[in-house]
Structure formats: structure tokens, C-alpha cells
Design goal:
By secondary structure, the chain is an alpha/beta fold. Helices cover about 30% and strands about 25% of the residues. It is built from 17 helices and 39 strands. It has a 29-stranded mixed sheet that branches. Strand 4 and strand 5 form a beta hairpin. The longest helix has about 30 residues.
Length: about 725
């Protein structure tokens, strides 16, 4: 209900004015009688004594304040005859045709046609033009999930990531990165840890109800309907927005953020360097650095990681790691945790989760998830890293544990088909280009969130190891089913371990064998058919060797040595070995280190999120050390002996396989790209070859391939020297 208050005249008593920090009045003075006269004639209304207005001691031109209504206090910084320009907008500094209540303006600002402007601090050289309402309540949180004095817990803003029933809900805060959101959303069974996460969020925020809005220097806000409880960083550009309410817009001179036409943002945090345009809507959200949200995209109850682009589509209750791409109007994503570097194709419906009595289903997908056109899935489902899912309707829950695989539907009520290691067998160009592609797309200048962009990293390699062991297990079962005498004797006489060795030997000794395996774990009811298991097995082993060798080469570079020697092997053997890895929001870390961090948080040795981020930094500094120890362990796993017992033949085998992968990456990348120029169906839309080259460029113009060739040659040359001192 609208309440009526009758104003019988302003009482010029300083005790009745809202609290004003004395530091804001340094270098300020009250108006002279002549200045009051000029303002009165310019239709400026204030209290009769004008004691609520302070101006700069050295530079105040009263002619630059016209048609203004002043309520509460107004503190003006330097105001002189200057013009501010942003693109084609040029405005003279001053206050014109606006209603101001409890406002502090910095030097050389423009406030023109702001119908209601209340409780804000504005830095220097800010342009505010054609704004209907811009106000801030004294209890605003600017999108942070905190409480002010006297507020009930129900007033707290939560983001229901990963699950529609809020079972994984987290609190947003300025500076949140996807690593924070991931750790908070996953370890839900640790009640003490969950309580501490709330305390970390509250740690650096004032609880007193004396909040004011803020606009950073050199920001421009124009033609906007409503800004309520908004904190805006410097160099931000907001034009034509519909509603911004209870949000923080992080922006800086190096990473400016922009918000455009028809945008509605409520209860959330916008990261540095973001661009949000064209009727995009976000409610209860955190958007990371260098993200784009545009063309009617709807982001609700979600966290979007750094360097992501979302347009047209709808995303509800999601936790999305960095480098996510989703562009198409018919796409729909709900109740999912996507571990980054993903691409959601048009028509993908990832949200058929109402196959229980409650909308509590969810999905988790590793890095590089790529569902095909018009695919739909049932929750709960899980996908390993770099899984490519062919177009289809998947009517049953999936558990795809084979990384770098292709999954295809064979119709309702049938097993799905899986080709493990598909990317390395048939799409090497994508793998070879992946790391460089994402590094070039990373426009962040300040990289709080560490991001692993290499497809071959500990998180994916541990999945490869699991897939290798699964192929061996299924092959053993296959041999028993076909009554292979060697397998049956091993199983009957020596047990499971001997049977697994027989299956492993079979995979090594029959490189051309073409058979299929059945894996019932991959799909509810109907399982999966594993195609080309021998090729996949061999390729997976090469992948592990390539990761191990390339990591050891990185280690040698850091140690400034050309090759490993016995002394270095001993040194590596003394490093801590971690076998379980987690993609924690984009940063790959040992699981044990996460547990250690949790213990420090619960012991209150870590007091706020800044200290959590400092822990991430230390883990990143030690990342190569952890990987090196893991790499040696993997080589020992593949060859079933300690590295000190490796023979010259084993080292030669490693070099041969890794060189083959390296060469294949380059050759396959060239062949894959050449198809775009030589395949008949790729050329049918062009009149001539010259026209095609004018549109597509030439193969020789491909920057990535031109860089890949010398890089491959250098890698192979370094690899040839890696083990020379060990045999």
C-alpha cells in the first residue's frame, strides 16, 4: 500500500540528515549566497537553508546545475565546463533535470534526466543519462548471499546449482569462481564444511544497514529503466537495460563489462570483462570473467564459468565450468554440472529429469562434452571427458566411462554403441587444436580461476586408465564366453589376476582382431556395445605414454636439462604421488589436496574465500611436480615394473609410441583440414577453386597448422633425447 506523508517544510537540522561520512566532506564547502541565487533561478530545489548541499572548494560552476530536486544531502565533486564523450554520446558535465537524494558525486560527472536517483556514491567522470530509477536500499547485498543485521535467514539468496531441488545450493559472492562453486556443491555430506562455507562468505562483508550504491569511475549508464541495489565497477557501459536489481557488475579499465538492450539481471554477480546484450535474462546467478550472454539467453539459478558464451538458449540450475559454448535457440540445459570446454548443439534437450517422483535428477559431464544435434537424455546420467554423443533420443540413463569416445543410439530398447578413443582414432585435428584454441580464447587479464586446457591431463588420463582396465576385464569375459582354453585354464587354476593377464596378452598379440564387447554399466537395462576394443586399447596406452613423456619433457625444461638421468629419477621417486584427481571448477588438483584444504577450512586456518583462492594458487604452483610423479607411476603401471628396471627396449617402445602419436596429431590434422578443400561435397557451393579459397582461405593460410608443424618437430627432437642417459 502506498503511504501518504505530508511535507510541511524541510527542517534544516543536521541531525535529521542521513549519516554522511566526514571524509566525504574533505575539500568541500557550503554554497555562497550568490551560488544559491543562481541555483534558485535555475529551478533547483533543496531545503530552504541549503545546508544539505556541499560543493568542491576549488571548482564549482553553479550554472551546471539546472532543473534539479535535492533531497537529503548532495555532495558534488569538481564541477566545471567540460564535456564527457563515450562513442557518439557527448554531454556537458553537470546535474540536469534530475531528482537526487543522498548522493555523492565525484569530479566532472554528468547526471542528466535521472528521474529518481537515491543513496549512491559515484566516482569521477561518470555519465548517467536518461534513467528512470537508480536507487539503493540501506540493506542491499549487491547479489552477495549474506545477511544484514536483524534479517531472517529466509532473506538469504541461494543459487540452486546442479539440482532443481536445491540440494546443492550455494551462496553467491563477489569474486566467486567455478572452483568455489564446485567444492561447495559436491561435498554435501560434510555438514561442518558446509557451515564453514557460509561463514567464509560472510567473512568480509559488513552487516550494518548503512549500505549505499556505487558507480566506478569512467562508467556510462544511459537509457535504462531501473537500477536498484547495484554496485558497478569502473569503465562499465550500460545502455538500454530493462532491470538491474541486487547485483554487482565487476568492471575495470583493463576488463570493462558491458550490459545492453533489454537485459534483466536480478540477484547475482557479473564478472569482469562480460558482455550481456539483447534481452538476455539472468536471475540468481554468478557469471565468470570474459563471458557473453546474449540474444534472449535465460540463465537461472546457475553459475557460468570464465570464457563462456551463451546465446538464445535456456539454462536452469546448472554449474558450468569455463569455456562453455551454447548458441542455439532450441537448446535446453537443466540440473547439470558440466566440467568445461563443452559445446551444446542446437536442439539438445538435456533436462528430461522428471523420470522420478521428484524433479531431483541431475547430470554430470567431464571436460569436452559435445552432444549432437537434437539429442535428449534422461537424468541421472554421467559422461567421461571429451565424449561426443551422436544425434539421437537416449531413453535410458547413461554412464559413459570411456573418455574421448563416440556414443551412438541404436534406437529405443537397444544397447548404445561406443567407440572408445574415437577422437584419437578419427578426429585428431580436434584434439591437436583443442589446447591452442582455448588458450587463444582466454581474454582474461587477471586469472583467478586456473584452467587446464590440455585434453591430456591427470583428470582425463585417470579416466583412460579406468577405461583400459575395463576393456581388459570385458575382454577376459569375452574370452571365457567363447571358451578360450588359455583363459579358462588361467581362471580355473590361477584366479582372476591370471585371467586379466591373459586378456591383456590377447589384446597385445591380436592387433587386428575385430570383435565387440558388452558393457552393461553404460546404459540402464540395455547396456552398450563396445566397438573396436583392440584399437581403443592400443590407442589409450599410447595416450598415457604421450601424457607421461610430455610431462617429463616439461619437467626437464624447468630443470634446464636435456634428458633424465638416474639422479633425477631418484628425485622424482621422492615426490608425493597422487593417483586420484579432480577437475575442481577447471583446475585439476589431487583429491587428497582438496581434503587437506577442507581440513584447514574446518580448523579455521582458512578464514575467507581469498585465502581459499591463495590455496588454489599454491596447488597450481605445484601442479607440474604432482604430474611428474604421476607420469612415472603411469609408465610403471603400463610396463608392470619400477622405472629403475626399465630396459632400453622399453624406453625405445615409449619413444616410438609417443612419436607416433605426435606425428599422427600433425598428419591427421593436415588430412582433416585438407578434406575441406578437396572433398567434392565441400566444393559444390563454389563456382571455382579461386572463389572457394577467397571464402575459406587456403590450407597454407591455416595459422594453427603452420604453428603445429615446427612445434611437432621440436617435440620429437626433445623426445629423442629424453631417456638417453638411462640406458
Amino acid at each position: 500500500m502506498v503511504q501518504l506523508s505530508i511535507d510541511n517544510g524541510f527542517v534544516p537540522n543536521a541531525t535529521l540528515l542521513p549519516a554522511l561520512d566526514e571524509s566525504l566532506l574533505k575539500g568541500k564547502r557550503h554554497l555562497t549566497e550568490d551560488e544559491i541565487g543562481v541555483l534558485s533561478r535555475a529551478n533547483v530545489n533543496a531545503d530552504p537553508s541549503w545546508q544539505n548541499v556541499w560543493v568542491d572548494e576549488e571548482a564549482f560552476d553553479p550554472l551546471l546545475v539546472r532543473g534539479a530536486e535535492i533531497r537529503g544531502y548532495l555532495v558534488l565533486g569538481r564541477l566545471r565546463v567540460v564535456s564527457l564523450k563515450y562513442h557518439d554520446l557527448v554531454l556537458e558535465a553537470g546535474v540536469y533535470n534530475s531528482c537526487l537524494e543522498n548522493i555523492v558525486l565525484g569530479a566532472d560527472c554528468v547526471v542528466r534526466n535521472v528521474a529518481y536517483f537515491s543513496n549512491y556514491r559515484v566516482a569521477e567522470r561518470v555519465m548517467l543519462f536518461n534513467i528512470q530509477e537508480m536507487s539503493c536500499t540501506n540493506h542491499s547485498k549487491f547479489g552477495n548471499g549474506i545477511l544484514k543485521d536483524g534479517e531472517d535467514e529466509r532473506a538469504r539468496i541461494w543459487i540452486g546449482v546442479g539440482n532443481e531441488n536445491d540440494g546443492r545450493a550455494i551462496l553467491p559472492f563477489e569474486g566467486m569462481i567455478s572452483s568455489d562453486a564446485f567444492l561447495w556443491s559436491r561435498w554435501r555430506d560434510d555438514a561442518e564444511l558446509q557451515k564453514r562455507f557460509v561463514e567464509l562468505t560472510e567473512a568480509n562483508h559488513k552487516k550494518s544497514c548503512d549500505t549505499h550504491g556505487f558507480v566506478g569511475s569512467h562508467s556510462v549508464i544511459k537509457n535504462t529503466t531501473l537500477l536498484k541495489d547495484v554496485l558497478i565497477g569502473e569503465n562499465a557501459y550500460i545502455k538500454g537495460a530493462f532491470k538491474l536489481k541486487n547485483i554487482t557488475v565487476c568492471s575495470s579499465i583493463d576488463e570493462p563489462s558491458q550490459i545492453g538492450e533489454g537485459v534483466e539481471l536480478v540477484n547475482g554477480i557479473v564478472g569482469y570483462g562480460c558482455h550481456i546484450f539483447y534481452q538476455a535474462v539472468a536471475v540468481r546467478f554468478v557469471i565468470g570473467r570474459n563471458c557473453q550472454l546474449k540474444y534472449g539467453a535465460r540463465l537461472l539459478n546457475s553459475v557460468l564459468g570464465d570464457n563462456s558464451t551463451v546465446s538464445c538458449c535456456e539454462l536452469l540450475n546448472n554449474l558450468i565450468f569455463p569455456f562453455h559454448e551454447q548458441h542455439h535457440n532450441s537448446s535446453f540445459l537443466i540440473a547439470s554440472t558440466l566440467c568445461g570446454q563443452s559445446n551444446i548443439a542446437s536442439g539438445a534437450t538435456i533436462g528430461s529429469n522428471h523420470n522420478s517422483r521428484s524433479p531431483d535428477g541431475e547430470m554430470i559431464a567431464g571436460r569436452g562434452f559435445w552432444p549432437g544435434l537434437c539429442s535428449d537424455f534422461k537424468h541421472n546420467s554421467r559422461f567421461a571427458s571429451f565424449v561426443l554423443v551422436s544425434k539421437g533420443s537416449y531413453q535410458n540413463e547413461l554412464n559413459i566411462t570411456y573418455p574421448f569416445s563416440l556414443v551412438a543410439s541404436n534406437g529405443e530398447g537397444k544397447p548404445v554403441s561406443i567407440i572408445p578413443a574415437y577422437w584419437f582414432l578419427y578426429n585428431m585435428y580436434a584434439i591437436a587444436r583443442n589446447n591452442a584454441k582455448f588458450q587463444k580464447r582466454d581474454k582474461r587479464l587477471v586469472k583467478v580461476q586456473h584452467i587446464e586446457t590440455n585434453p591430456l591431463a591427470p583428470d582425463t588420463i585417470q579416466e583412460v586408465v579406468v577405461a583400459l582396465e575395463r576393456i581388459i576385464e570385458l575382454t577376459a569375459r569375452y574370452l571365457l564366453e567363447r571358451k578360450d582354453e588359455v583363459a579358462m585354464e588361467a581362471a580355473g587354476t590361477y584366479g582372476t589376476e591370471a585371467l586379466m593377464q591373459v586378456a591383456k596378452d590377447f589384446l597385445h598379440q591380436h592387433p587386428s582382431a575385430d570383435f565387440k564387447l558388452q558393457d552393461m554399466r553404460c546404459q540402464r537395462k540395455f547396456g552398450a556395445v563396445i566397438l573396436k576394443p583392440v584399437k581403443a586399447y592400443k590407442e589409450y596406452r599410447k595416450i598415457v605414454k604421450y601424457f607421461a613423456a610430455s610431462t617429463l619433457l616439461d619437467y626437464c625444461s624447468v630443470r634446464h636439462i636435456a634428458s633424465l638421468n638416474r639422479r633425477e629419477i631418484i628425485r622424482i621417486s621422492q615426490l608425493p604421488l597422487f593417483k586420484r584427481w579432480v577437475n575442481a571448477g577447471g583446475q585439476v588438483v589431487p583429491e587428497e589436496k582438496i581434503v587437506e584444504l577442507f581440513q584447514r577450512i574446518k580448523k579455521r586456518e582458512v578464514r575467507d574465500w581469498d585465502e581459499v583462492h591463495a590455496s588454489y594458487d599454491r596447488l597450481e604452483e605445484s601442479y607440474l611436480t604432482y604430474k611428474v610423479a604421476y607420469s612415472v607411476h603411469l609408465l610403471e603401471y603400463l610396463y608392470s615394473r619400477p622405472i629403475c628396471d626399465f630396459s632400453a627396449d622399453i624406453y625405445a617402445d615409449i619413444i616410438a609410441d609417443v612419436t607416433a602419436v605426435s606425428d599422427e596429431m600433425y598428419k591427421s590434422a593436415v588430412v582433416s583440414r585438407r578434406k575441406d578443400y578437396e572433398d567434392d561435397f565441400r566444393t559444390i557451393t563454389f563456382r571455382t577453386k579461386a572463389e572457394m579459397e577467397a571464402v575459406l582461405g587456403t590450407l597454407g593460410d591455416n595459422e594453427f597448422l603452420n604453428e603445429l608443424k615446427p612445434r611437432t618437430e621440436s617435440f620429437n627432437a626433445r623426445l629423442s633425447r629424453l631417456f638417453v642417459e638411462l640406458y
